[in-house]
Amino acid sequence: MEQGTGEVFKVVPEGSITTPKGFTAGGLHCGLKKTTRHDLGAILCEVPAAAAGVYTLNRVQAAPIKVTKDSIANGGTLRAVLVNSGNANACTGKQGEEDAFQMRKSFADAAGVSEQEVAVASTGVIGELLKMDRVLDGIAGLPQRLGGTTSASEDFCQAILTTDLVQKMVCVSVEVDGKTVHVAGAAKGSGMIHPNMATMLGFVTTDVNIGRSSLQQLLGKATDLTFNMITVDGDTSTNDMLVAMASGLAGNHELTPSHPDYAAFAAALQYVCEVLAKAIARDGEGATKLIEVQVEGAESNRSARAIAKTIIGSSLVKSAVFGADANWGRIIAAAGRAGEPLNPDTVDIYLGEIETLKQSRPVVFDEDAALEYLKGDTVVIRVHLHLGEGQAIGWGCDLTYDYVRINAAYRT
Length: 412
What we know:
- It is found in: Cytoplasm.
- The chain is an alpha+beta fold.
- The protein contains 11 helices and 16 strands.
- Strand 12 (about 350) and strand 13 (about 355-360) form a beta hairpin.
Protein backbone atom coordinates (compact mmCIF):
# COMPACT_ATOMS: atom_id res chain seq x y z
CA MET A 1 0.00 0.00 0.00
CA GLU A 2 1.22 3.49 -0.78
CA GLN A 3 0.44 6.67 1.07
CA GLY A 4 -0.58 9.34 -1.39
CA THR A 5 -1.64 12.78 -0.22
CA GLY A 6 -3.33 11.45 2.91
CA GLU A 7 -5.26 8.68 1.18
CA VAL A 8 -4.43 5.01 0.70
CA PHE A 9 -4.26 3.35 -2.70
CA LYS A 10 -2.49 0.32 -4.08
CA VAL A 11 0.36 0.25 -6.57
CA VAL A 12 -0.14 -2.38 -9.28
CA PRO A 13 3.43 -3.47 -10.12
CA GLU A 14 2.36 -5.50 -13.16
CA GLY A 15 -0.05 -2.81 -14.35
CA SER A 16 0.29 -0.65 -17.45
CA ILE A 17 -1.59 1.99 -19.43
CA THR A 18 -3.89 -0.75 -20.74
CA THR A 19 -4.85 -1.99 -17.27
CA PRO A 20 -7.78 0.47 -16.95
CA LYS A 21 -10.83 -1.03 -18.65
CA GLY A 22 -11.38 -0.14 -22.28
CA PHE A 23 -7.82 0.69 -23.35
CA THR A 24 -5.39 -0.88 -25.80
CA ALA A 25 -2.02 0.43 -26.91
CA GLY A 26 0.94 -0.41 -29.11
CA GLY A 27 3.79 0.84 -31.23
CA LEU A 28 5.95 0.11 -34.25
CA HIS A 29 8.91 1.41 -36.23
CA CYS A 30 7.87 3.48 -39.23
CA GLY A 31 11.26 4.94 -40.14
CA LEU A 32 11.42 8.37 -38.51
CA LYS A 33 14.38 7.28 -36.39
CA LYS A 34 17.69 6.09 -37.75
CA THR A 35 17.58 3.12 -35.38
CA THR A 36 14.96 0.35 -35.53
CA ARG A 37 13.44 1.41 -32.21
CA HIS A 38 9.69 2.05 -32.34
CA ASP A 39 8.81 5.62 -33.31
CA LEU A 40 5.02 5.54 -33.81
CA GLY A 41 2.50 4.54 -31.16
CA ALA A 42 -1.11 4.91 -30.10
CA ILE A 43 -3.52 4.46 -27.23
CA LEU A 44 -7.09 3.53 -28.20
CA CYS A 45 -10.23 3.47 -26.05
CA GLU A 46 -13.20 1.30 -26.99
CA VAL A 47 -15.65 4.03 -25.89
CA PRO A 48 -15.55 7.84 -25.98
CA ALA A 49 -13.44 8.80 -22.97
CA ALA A 50 -13.72 12.02 -20.99
CA ALA A 51 -10.57 13.94 -21.87
CA ALA A 52 -8.44 16.65 -20.32
CA GLY A 53 -5.15 18.21 -21.32
CA VAL A 54 -2.48 20.69 -20.30
CA TYR A 55 0.05 22.10 -22.70
CA THR A 56 3.32 23.98 -22.96
CA LEU A 57 3.29 27.70 -22.20
CA ASN A 58 6.09 28.24 -24.70
CA ARG A 59 4.82 30.84 -27.19
CA VAL A 60 6.25 28.69 -29.97
CA GLN A 61 3.95 25.66 -30.06
CA ALA A 62 4.22 22.63 -32.31
CA ALA A 63 1.47 21.76 -34.79
CA PRO A 64 0.23 18.66 -32.86
CA ILE A 65 -0.72 20.88 -29.90
CA LYS A 66 -3.19 22.75 -32.11
CA VAL A 67 -4.66 19.45 -33.30
CA THR A 68 -5.06 18.02 -29.80
CA LYS A 69 -6.59 21.22 -28.42
CA ASP A 70 -9.06 21.15 -31.31
CA SER A 71 -9.96 17.51 -30.66
CA ILE A 72 -10.55 17.90 -26.93
CA ALA A 73 -12.48 21.15 -27.36
CA ASN A 74 -14.91 19.41 -29.70
CA GLY A 75 -17.10 17.60 -27.19
CA GLY A 76 -14.55 16.90 -24.49
CA THR A 77 -14.01 13.24 -25.36
CA LEU A 78 -11.27 11.24 -27.06
CA ARG A 79 -11.08 7.74 -28.47
CA ALA A 80 -7.36 7.76 -29.23
CA VAL A 81 -4.02 9.50 -29.02
CA LEU A 82 -1.43 9.04 -31.79
CA VAL A 83 2.22 9.79 -31.01
CA ASN A 84 5.41 9.88 -33.04
CA SER A 85 8.99 10.37 -31.90
CA GLY A 86 12.04 11.38 -33.92
CA ASN A 87 10.43 14.57 -35.25
CA ALA A 88 8.71 17.32 -33.23
CA ASN A 89 6.77 18.78 -36.18
CA ALA A 90 7.50 22.20 -34.66
CA CYS A 91 8.36 25.39 -36.57
CA THR A 92 7.21 23.66 -39.76
CA GLY A 93 4.64 26.23 -40.85
CA LYS A 94 1.44 25.54 -42.75
CA GLN A 95 2.75 22.23 -44.10
CA GLY A 96 3.48 20.97 -40.60
CA GLU A 97 -0.01 21.86 -39.46
CA GLU A 98 -1.56 20.12 -42.44
CA ASP A 99 0.58 17.06 -41.71
CA ALA A 100 -0.60 16.94 -38.10
CA PHE A 101 -4.25 17.12 -39.13
CA GLN A 102 -3.60 14.46 -41.78
CA MET A 103 -2.13 12.19 -39.09
CA ARG A 104 -5.33 12.64 -37.07
CA LYS A 105 -7.58 11.81 -40.01
CA SER A 106 -5.52 8.86 -41.22
CA PHE A 107 -5.44 7.19 -37.81
CA ALA A 108 -9.16 7.85 -37.30
CA ASP A 109 -9.89 6.12 -40.61
CA ALA A 110 -7.56 3.22 -39.82
CA ALA A 111 -9.01 2.71 -36.32
CA GLY A 112 -12.64 3.31 -37.30
CA VAL A 113 -13.21 6.26 -34.95
CA SER A 114 -14.27 9.87 -35.36
CA GLU A 115 -11.53 12.21 -36.59
CA GLN A 116 -12.45 14.73 -33.87
CA GLU A 117 -11.77 12.13 -31.17
CA VAL A 118 -8.08 11.61 -31.99
CA ALA A 119 -5.30 13.56 -30.26
CA VAL A 120 -1.86 13.89 -31.85
CA ALA A 121 1.52 14.35 -30.16
CA SER A 122 5.04 14.54 -31.55
CA THR A 123 8.54 14.77 -30.09
CA GLY A 124 12.02 15.00 -31.56
CA VAL A 125 13.99 17.40 -33.72
CA ILE A 126 12.52 20.87 -34.27
CA GLY A 127 12.27 22.47 -37.70
CA GLU A 128 12.12 19.43 -39.98
CA LEU A 129 9.08 18.30 -41.93
CA LEU A 130 7.73 14.85 -41.17
CA LYS A 131 8.44 12.08 -43.65
CA MET A 132 4.71 11.65 -44.18
CA ASP A 133 4.97 8.66 -46.52
CA ARG A 134 6.58 6.69 -43.69
CA VAL A 135 4.16 8.03 -41.09
CA LEU A 136 1.10 7.12 -43.15
CA ASP A 137 2.43 3.64 -43.91
CA GLY A 138 2.98 3.17 -40.19
CA ILE A 139 -0.49 4.44 -39.31
CA ALA A 140 -2.06 1.95 -41.71
CA GLY A 141 -0.47 -0.95 -39.84
CA LEU A 142 -0.77 0.44 -36.33
CA PRO A 143 -4.31 -0.70 -35.34
CA GLN A 144 -3.29 -4.35 -35.79
CA ARG A 145 -0.44 -3.78 -33.31
CA LEU A 146 -2.67 -2.50 -30.52
CA GLY A 147 -3.40 -4.80 -27.59
CA GLY A 148 -4.17 -4.95 -23.90
CA THR A 149 -1.01 -6.72 -22.78
CA THR A 150 1.91 -5.31 -20.84
CA SER A 151 4.08 -6.01 -23.89
CA ALA A 152 1.82 -3.86 -26.07
CA SER A 153 2.01 -1.05 -23.51
CA GLU A 154 5.80 -1.32 -23.51
CA ASP A 155 5.77 -1.05 -27.31
CA PHE A 156 3.89 2.24 -26.92
CA CYS A 157 6.32 3.45 -24.28
CA GLN A 158 9.25 2.69 -26.56
CA ALA A 159 7.59 4.52 -29.44
CA ILE A 160 7.48 7.83 -27.55
CA LEU A 161 11.13 7.94 -26.42
CA THR A 162 13.85 10.22 -27.78
CA THR A 163 17.03 10.52 -25.70
CA ASP A 164 15.38 8.73 -22.77
CA LEU A 165 17.32 5.79 -21.40
CA VAL A 166 14.36 4.09 -19.72
CA GLN A 167 10.62 3.70 -20.26
CA LYS A 168 8.37 5.43 -17.74
CA MET A 169 5.08 3.78 -16.75
CA VAL A 170 3.09 3.32 -13.53
CA CYS A 171 -0.33 1.97 -12.47
CA VAL A 172 -2.33 2.14 -9.24
CA SER A 173 -5.78 1.06 -8.08
CA VAL A 174 -8.17 2.87 -5.75
CA GLU A 175 -11.68 2.13 -4.47
CA VAL A 176 -14.52 4.38 -5.70
CA ASP A 177 -18.06 3.43 -4.69
CA GLY A 178 -16.69 0.02 -3.77
CA LYS A 179 -15.49 -0.45 -7.35
CA THR A 180 -11.83 -1.00 -8.21
CA VAL A 181 -10.68 1.91 -10.33
CA HIS A 182 -7.30 1.92 -12.07
CA VAL A 183 -5.18 4.96 -12.88
CA ALA A 184 -2.16 4.47 -15.12
CA GLY A 185 0.35 6.68 -16.84
CA ALA A 186 3.19 6.70 -19.34
CA ALA A 187 5.58 9.53 -20.12
CA LYS A 188 8.72 10.48 -21.98
CA GLY A 189 11.19 13.16 -21.16
CA SER A 190 14.91 13.46 -20.61
CA GLY A 191 16.09 16.80 -21.99
CA MET A 192 14.47 20.17 -22.71
CA ILE A 193 12.62 19.78 -19.43
CA HIS A 194 11.45 22.81 -17.47
CA PRO A 195 7.69 22.43 -17.68
CA ASN A 196 5.22 25.24 -17.29
CA MET A 197 2.40 22.73 -17.58
CA ALA A 198 3.45 19.13 -17.74
CA THR A 199 6.32 17.19 -19.18
CA MET A 200 7.64 16.60 -22.67
CA LEU A 201 4.83 14.10 -23.27
CA GLY A 202 2.59 12.38 -20.73
CA PHE A 203 -0.48 10.19 -21.01
CA VAL A 204 -2.88 9.07 -18.27
CA THR A 205 -5.56 6.40 -18.67
CA THR A 206 -8.24 5.56 -16.12
CA ASP A 207 -11.55 3.72 -16.09
CA VAL A 208 -13.19 5.97 -13.51
CA ASN A 209 -16.53 7.55 -14.39
CA ILE A 210 -15.83 11.29 -14.27
CA GLY A 211 -16.88 14.38 -16.18
CA ARG A 212 -14.48 16.39 -18.29
CA SER A 213 -14.49 19.47 -16.04
CA SER A 214 -13.71 17.46 -12.91
CA LEU A 215 -10.97 15.56 -14.73
CA GLN A 216 -9.48 18.81 -16.02
CA GLN A 217 -9.51 20.30 -12.54
CA LEU A 218 -7.80 17.28 -11.00
CA LEU A 219 -5.24 17.03 -13.79
CA GLY A 220 -4.35 20.70 -13.47
CA LYS A 221 -3.85 20.44 -9.72
CA ALA A 222 -1.78 17.26 -10.00
CA THR A 223 0.35 18.88 -12.70
CA ASP A 224 1.15 21.91 -10.54
CA LEU A 225 2.41 19.67 -7.73
CA THR A 226 4.36 17.20 -9.87
CA PHE A 227 5.26 17.85 -13.51
CA ASN A 228 5.50 21.58 -12.88
CA MET A 229 7.99 20.88 -10.08
CA ILE A 230 10.69 19.21 -12.18
CA THR A 231 13.54 20.63 -14.20
CA VAL A 232 16.44 19.08 -16.06
CA ASP A 233 17.93 21.96 -18.01
CA GLY A 234 15.63 24.98 -17.67
CA ASP A 235 14.22 24.71 -21.20
CA THR A 236 10.46 24.52 -21.77
CA SER A 237 9.69 22.55 -24.93
CA THR A 238 7.56 23.53 -27.90
CA ASN A 239 5.73 20.18 -27.61
CA ASP A 240 5.00 19.67 -23.90
CA MET A 241 1.66 17.94 -23.48
CA LEU A 242 -0.17 15.91 -20.84
CA VAL A 243 -3.42 14.20 -21.84
CA ALA A 244 -5.77 12.19 -19.59
CA MET A 245 -8.53 9.87 -20.80
CA ALA A 246 -11.25 8.36 -18.57
CA SER A 247 -13.31 5.52 -20.07
CA GLY A 248 -15.89 5.40 -17.26
CA LEU A 249 -16.04 1.60 -17.49
CA ALA A 250 -15.27 0.98 -13.80
CA GLY A 251 -18.99 1.41 -13.13
CA ASN A 252 -18.86 3.94 -10.29
CA HIS A 253 -21.30 6.81 -9.87
CA GLU A 254 -19.92 9.90 -11.57
CA LEU A 255 -17.00 11.31 -9.61
CA THR A 256 -17.50 14.95 -8.62
CA PRO A 257 -15.90 17.19 -5.97
CA SER A 258 -18.74 16.29 -3.57
CA HIS A 259 -18.23 12.53 -3.98
CA PRO A 260 -16.84 10.87 -0.80
CA ASP A 261 -14.10 9.12 -2.82
CA TYR A 262 -13.03 12.22 -4.77
CA ALA A 263 -9.99 12.84 -2.54
CA ALA A 264 -8.87 9.22 -2.80
CA PHE A 265 -8.97 9.32 -6.60
CA ALA A 266 -7.20 12.69 -6.60
CA ALA A 267 -4.43 11.20 -4.46
CA ALA A 268 -4.07 8.25 -6.82
CA LEU A 269 -3.85 10.55 -9.85
CA GLN A 270 -1.31 12.78 -8.14
CA TYR A 271 0.79 9.76 -7.21
CA VAL A 272 0.84 8.56 -10.83
CA CYS A 273 1.92 12.01 -12.00
CA GLU A 274 4.58 12.25 -9.27
CA VAL A 275 6.12 8.88 -10.14
CA LEU A 276 6.34 9.86 -13.81
CA ALA A 277 7.71 13.33 -13.02
CA LYS A 278 10.44 11.93 -10.77
CA ALA A 279 11.29 9.31 -13.39
CA ILE A 280 11.82 12.09 -15.94
CA ALA A 281 14.05 14.03 -13.55
CA ARG A 282 16.08 10.92 -12.73
CA ASP A 283 16.45 10.14 -16.45
CA GLY A 284 17.69 13.63 -17.30
CA GLU A 285 20.18 13.64 -20.16
CA GLY A 286 23.55 12.53 -18.82
CA ALA A 287 22.27 12.49 -15.23
CA THR A 288 23.78 10.31 -12.51
CA LYS A 289 21.62 11.45 -9.57
CA LEU A 290 18.06 12.44 -8.72
CA ILE A 291 17.96 15.65 -6.68
CA GLU A 292 14.97 16.38 -4.44
CA VAL A 293 14.61 19.85 -2.95
CA GLN A 294 12.26 20.23 0.02
CA VAL A 295 11.37 23.80 0.98
CA GLU A 296 9.66 24.39 4.32
CA GLY A 297 8.66 27.47 6.29
CA ALA A 298 8.04 29.66 3.28
CA GLU A 299 5.53 32.51 3.26
CA SER A 300 3.16 30.45 1.07
CA ASN A 301 3.05 27.22 -0.91
CA ARG A 302 3.36 29.22 -4.11
CA SER A 303 6.48 30.93 -2.80
CA ALA A 304 7.91 27.56 -1.67
CA ARG A 305 7.37 26.12 -5.16
CA ALA A 306 9.19 29.03 -6.79
CA ILE A 307 12.15 28.70 -4.43
CA ALA A 308 12.34 24.92 -4.84
CA LYS A 309 12.37 25.20 -8.63
CA THR A 310 15.02 27.92 -8.55
CA ILE A 311 17.31 25.76 -6.43
CA ILE A 312 16.69 22.61 -8.46
CA GLY A 313 17.29 24.56 -11.68
CA SER A 314 20.55 26.16 -10.60
CA SER A 315 23.41 24.99 -12.81
CA LEU A 316 25.80 25.64 -9.92
CA VAL A 317 23.77 23.52 -7.48
CA LYS A 318 23.43 20.76 -10.07
CA SER A 319 27.17 20.84 -10.81
CA ALA A 320 28.04 20.73 -7.11
CA VAL A 321 25.87 17.65 -6.63
CA PHE A 322 27.55 15.98 -9.60
CA GLY A 323 30.92 16.68 -8.04
CA ALA A 324 29.73 15.59 -4.56
CA ASP A 325 30.67 19.03 -3.22
CA ALA A 326 28.71 20.04 -0.09
CA ASN A 327 28.56 23.66 -1.26
CA TRP A 328 25.60 25.03 0.70
CA GLY A 329 26.50 28.56 -0.45
CA ARG A 330 25.15 27.80 -3.90
CA ILE A 331 21.88 26.60 -2.37
CA ILE A 332 21.21 29.69 -0.25
CA ALA A 333 22.25 31.94 -3.16
CA ALA A 334 19.72 30.23 -5.44
CA ALA A 335 17.00 30.55 -2.79
CA GLY A 336 17.78 34.24 -2.42
CA ARG A 337 17.44 35.01 -6.12
CA ALA A 338 14.07 33.29 -6.54
CA GLY A 339 12.30 36.63 -6.11
CA GLU A 340 10.32 35.39 -3.12
CA PRO A 341 10.20 36.56 0.52
CA LEU A 342 13.23 35.33 2.46
CA ASN A 343 14.90 36.46 5.67
CA PRO A 344 18.66 36.16 5.07
CA ASP A 345 19.20 35.53 8.81
CA THR A 346 16.84 32.57 9.36
CA VAL A 347 17.69 29.92 6.75
CA ASP A 348 18.50 26.31 7.65
CA ILE A 349 19.96 23.91 5.04
CA TYR A 350 20.36 20.14 5.26
CA LEU A 351 21.93 17.64 2.87
CA GLY A 352 19.98 14.54 3.78
CA GLU A 353 20.27 14.46 7.58
CA ILE A 354 23.47 16.52 7.60
CA GLU A 355 22.90 20.08 8.80
CA THR A 356 25.19 22.53 6.99
CA LEU A 357 23.56 25.87 7.84
CA LYS A 358 21.50 26.98 10.86
CA GLN A 359 19.89 30.39 11.06
CA SER A 360 22.07 31.36 8.09
CA ARG A 361 25.25 30.54 9.99
CA PRO A 362 27.68 27.78 8.95
CA VAL A 363 27.56 24.59 10.98
CA VAL A 364 30.62 22.42 11.47
CA PHE A 365 29.77 19.10 9.81
CA ASP A 366 31.54 15.92 8.80
CA GLU A 367 32.83 16.64 5.29
CA ASP A 368 33.61 12.97 4.66
CA ALA A 369 30.06 11.95 5.60
CA ALA A 370 28.67 14.66 3.31
CA LEU A 371 30.91 13.43 0.48
CA GLU A 372 29.66 9.87 0.87
CA TYR A 373 26.06 11.05 0.98
CA LEU A 374 26.43 13.14 -2.17
CA LYS A 375 27.93 10.18 -4.00
CA GLY A 376 24.58 8.36 -3.74
CA ASP A 377 22.08 8.18 -6.58
CA THR A 378 19.48 10.28 -4.71
CA VAL A 379 20.29 13.56 -2.96
CA VAL A 380 17.74 15.35 -0.78
CA ILE A 381 18.30 19.05 -0.05
CA ARG A 382 16.08 20.50 2.68
CA VAL A 383 15.73 24.26 3.12
CA HIS A 384 13.77 25.75 6.04
CA LEU A 385 13.06 29.49 5.82
CA HIS A 386 11.22 30.03 9.15
CA LEU A 387 8.82 32.54 7.62
CA GLY A 388 5.47 30.75 7.48
CA GLU A 389 3.70 27.48 6.72
CA GLY A 390 4.44 27.23 2.98
CA GLN A 391 6.08 24.08 1.67
CA ALA A 392 6.89 22.39 -1.63
CA ILE A 393 9.02 19.66 -3.18
CA GLY A 394 10.88 19.90 -6.48
CA TRP A 395 12.88 17.34 -8.43
CA GLY A 396 15.78 17.55 -10.84
CA CYS A 397 19.12 15.97 -11.62
CA ASP A 398 22.81 16.72 -11.60
CA LEU A 399 24.55 18.47 -14.50
CA THR A 400 27.21 16.30 -16.07
CA TYR A 401 29.70 16.29 -18.92
CA ASP A 402 27.42 13.90 -20.77
CA TYR A 403 24.61 16.47 -20.88
CA VAL A 404 26.80 18.73 -22.98
CA ARG A 405 27.96 15.82 -25.16
CA ILE A 406 24.39 14.69 -25.87
CA ASN A 407 23.08 18.15 -26.72
CA ALA A 408 26.12 19.36 -28.63
CA ALA A 409 25.19 16.97 -31.43
CA TYR A 410 21.44 16.39 -30.94
CA ARG A 411 20.51 16.82 -34.62
CA THR A 412 23.30 14.59 -35.88
